[in-house]
Amino acid sequence: xxxxxxxxxNLLVLTALVLLGLLYIASxxxxxxxxxxLSGVTHPSQEQVARLTERYHLDGNGLQGYxxxxxQRLTGDFGLSQASGRPVLNELLQVIPATLELTILxxxxxxLVGIPLxxxxxxxxxxxxxxxxxxxxxxxxxxxFWLGLLLMLTFGLSxxxxxxxxxxxxxxxxxxxxxxxxxxxxxxxxPWRWAxxxxxxxxxxxxxxxxxxxxxxxxxxxxxxxxxxxxxKNYIRALMARGVPRYRLVLSHALPNSLAxxxxxxxxxxxxxxxxxxxxxxxxxxxxxxxxxxxxQYQGDHTALTGxxxxxxxxIIVLTILLEIAQALLNPVIRKEIHG
Length: 340
Known about the structure:
Membrane topology: Multi-pass membrane protein
Number of domains: 2
Oligomer: single chain
CATH superfamily of the largest domain: MetI-like
Family: Belongs to the binding-protein-dependent transport system permease family. OppBC subfamily.
Mean pLDDT: 88
InterPro entries: MetI-like, MetI-like_sf
Subcellular location: Cell membrane
CATH architecture of the largest domain: Orthogonal Bundle
Pfam family, one: BPD_transp_1
């Protein structure tokens, strides 16, 4: 097991170094002054130019500059935002919790809905499995931006049933503690916190539904295919011959063995899910890292853009490796190879 984890750690390190190399090259090739793109200092004085040139080794060769760039970024120095003049890391810490809150709720919803529907779709009798299978095929063909705009125009503007944008009503001044709006509201002792909590939940409904759509369809399709394969295996037939009830076969044997392929496919779709987060945040004006990255792109804030891309890409890489480890622990064959 230790060797397996070390291999995954090596993969993480090598992938991160390649990513940092690409971002360093992009910083050198972006329009504008190279020193400004790396540090974020828009109008440096002579003293700042000398200090930053030494810090980023701009007067040395490319390898020295790359190593200096890696050292600065891995120690948390992402430079200053060219638009606001604030440290990029501080701005990221302000917007990341909003994205995490939305993404975690969407993935939990996708799992809670997708796994039971995937089990039902694996049934062999009745019209429900065919309807669920056809629904997943239709769901995959619906673009995220179209679904988001449709729900926003229908429930947010036409029916006025749910908020169409934002994270909470501006009337509520919730103190920033953790960055997670629901948690910060509960930690507040304001007399209006329950009304604010209900308002925040209403703001979450539409973006959560849109963001949960794609992973939910992925879960349904994967669970269905894995369940059909498991139910045809010899050990399931042997247990059926012994009189084991079907619900026990599904819940105790087939379903646990079907979770590993689901995690595998989800890990391969993390990039697409991350792009969906950016689209959803843009449509619903959600103040997360996706909206922040788009604003940095529009403003030509190259320092903030490279810092945000680094954080998003590293998060996808780490989550992919964690899901692969979880899949290995759930899969008896891979688990036997690891411990063997």
